[in-house]
Amino acid sequence: MLKAWRKSFVLLILTLSLPALVFADTVYETELEFLSRAFTDSPPEPNLLWLSGERKSAVRQLLGHDYSALRLRYWCQVGRSAWILDEIGKELPITVGIIVENNYIKNLRVMTYRENRGGEVATAAFTDQFINAELEESNRLNVRIDGISGATLSVQSLTRLATMALYLHTESNCSNES
Amino acid sequence: MNLKKLRASKARRLHRSLGAGAAIFVIFMVLSGLAINHSNDLGLDQRHVSQSFLLDWYGLGKPERIQSFAVGDDWLSFAGSQLYLNEKPVATISDGVGAVSNGDILIAADSDELLLLDHDGNLIERIQWEPIGAAPIESIGLHENTMVSVKSAGQLWLADTQMLNWQQADDASPGPLWVTSEPAPDGLQESVTASYRGEGPSLERLLLDLHSGRIFGTIGILVYDLLALALGFLSISGLVLWFRSRRNGKPT
Q1: Structure confidence by residue, pLDDT tens digits, B205-231
Q2: Which of A20, A141, B39, B167 could be bridged to B44 by S-S, CB 3.0 to 4.6 A?
Q3: pLDDT, position A19
Q4: How confident is the model at residue B11 (pLDDT cuts 50, 70, 90)?
Q5: B106-110 and A26-27 as β-strands: parallel, antiparallel, unpaired?
Q6: Which of A132, A75, A130 is nearest to A103 (CA)?
Q7: Closest residue on chain A to B118 (Cα)
Q8: Which is higher by pLDDT, B12 or A8?
Q9: Which residues in chain B touch residue A30, judged by CB atoms under 8 angstroms apart?
Q10: B220 and B191 in a common domain
Q11: Chain A residue closest to B115 (CA)?
């Protein structure tokens, strides 16, 4: 009898804590982990890129709205740049780490996912589609990114961020190093 | 007086008392119902209640505390999870530690990040503290009046002029001036409190909640249910009394 009560109590606690588990931020990679992956040697010092003037307008065009900050920090080493960018999925920002090399995407990975639906965009099966993507003259990716049903907004957010990272790479000092 | 008459007299008295009691309720329901029906024409959906007790009643309470920091000619204030530049809400922040200005940039610190703002309140950058120092930020201050400094786990960290790189200072370095919250001017405190509480529910919403009894929660709805049943009883008892008087050939 007592065992049955205990079991019920544990089940109740688990059920009550389920929403907290579902809605918690999922951190896939920290900044330090991302940088040590991007630069096998010790990560370089960060640089700054201000989003002002024409650059701000260009980013607005790529995202469909202003970026949430006025300046971005990025890391650059021998033509390779690493960017940590945020973009709203449906309601909450998705943090994405993007590595650009010689004007193509070397790697893209979701670092923190905060929405309660659409987390499938963090899987390698989805993010690997961005590898080797380049920016066309029309400021679009030269590859077709297949969507995920139920995660359309997150897919669009990641696609916009990939486009933005490629544009920012061309604007940074890093593109001159390649 | 026989038993029948006594009963009839009791019923009339009950009908009268209930009727008198319900009259106030009925008048209120009629007036509030009319106002709700014409709320758009009367502009009730555009007007908001700002009375403190009503905002409290709706759960739009005051912030537990407001911490304000003078940053040049401006004030940065933490109220709940909101950061204000003067009276303008500019960002959300978890638990404000302090705020300083290094001239061009305003810096607000909470335990795990630094927010860089321009003098219009635009967010320049959010700097996560975790990759820099493992422990949470305890204090923020200015070293030699220019260099932004942070204390984390008792250690002193100094930023470069662009707030791009941070270095741990040795113990021999002279200590920076840590900022502490100051009492903001009265007008500013009131503005921040008002902004924190929002503009309050519309008059239309207040009337709807009064009309339905929802403003008093579940008890209010139950009381309104009882009053509605009383009105139903009054209609029936009125009809019964009327038929009875007709049958007896006497006016009620």
Answers
A1: 999 999 988 888 899 999 889 888 888
A2: B39
A3: 46
A4: confident
A5: unpaired
A6: A132
A7: A70
A8: B12
A9: 130-131
A10: no
A11: A69
What secondary structure, in 3-state letters, does A47-96 show? Answer: EEEECCHHHHHHHHHHHCCCCCCCEEEEEEECCEEEEEEEEECCCCEEEE
Average pLDDT, chain B: 87
Hey, what are A84's tokens?
Answer: 């940590």
Indicate the pairing of strand B106-110 with strand B96-101: antiparallel
CA–CA gap between residue B197 and residue B220 (Å, rounded): 25
CB-CB neighbours of A116 under 10 Å:
13
Pairing of strands B82-85, B66-71: unpaired
Same-domain pairing of B138 and B208: no
Residue numbers of the domain that contains B139:
66-197
Give the domain-ending residue among B161, B181, B197.
Answer: B197
Q: What residue segments make up the domains of chain A, in order of their start?
A: 24-177
Answer yes or no: do A31 and B118 touch at CB < 8 A.
Answer: no
Q: Which residues in B lie closer than 8 A to residue A31 (C-beta atoms)?
A: 128, 130-131
- Looking at residue A9, its pLDDT comes to 57
Q: Work out the angle between the directed axes of helices B3-37 and B203-212 (0-180°, nearest 10).
A: 160
| Set of chain A residues whose Cβ sits within 8 Å of the Cβ of B131 | 30-32
Residue B124 and residue B235 in one domain:
no
Of B123, B131, B162, the CB nearest to A31: B131
B53 and B102 co-located in one domain = no
User: What value of ipTM does the predicted structure carry?
Assistant: 0.74
Task: Output the average pLDDT for chain A.
Answer: 87
Q: Are the Cβ atoms of B165 and A46 closer than 8 angstroms?
A: yes
**How many domains, chain B?**
2
Do residue B193 and residue B207 come from a single domain?
Answer: no
Contact A46 B130 (CB under 8 A): no
